[in-house]
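Chapter summary example: a protein plus FE2/S2 (inorganic) cluster.
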Amino acid sequence: MQANDTPLFYIGKTEAFGEQFDAWTDRPLLQSMEQGGVSWPSSCRAGNCRTCIGKLVSGTVRYEMEWPGLLPEEKEEGYVLPCVAHPCSDVVLSEGY
Ligand code: FES
């Protein structure tokens, strides 16, 4: 593997407990949180049920699916679905709606 094949990661944090995790760009935030020992609610893990919903306190994400289960207004307000959201920067997340 060459150096530029290595996936990038950013720093992820949860607002409530200040837990920190490596937020890999090649996988959803939920997966990175779980790998980092951060407990976060989830169910469908497919961007549909909204169990994992949270709000971006800071940072940006992208989605590989076209229509994650969020309204455009919710996206504008910073709500994210970590089970399908990939980080584009360091992120701080707060849990819940
Ligand atoms: S776990 Fe269902 S939308 Fe994220």
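Key point: Strands lie at 9-14, 20-24, 54-58, 61-63, 79-80, 85-87, 91-95.
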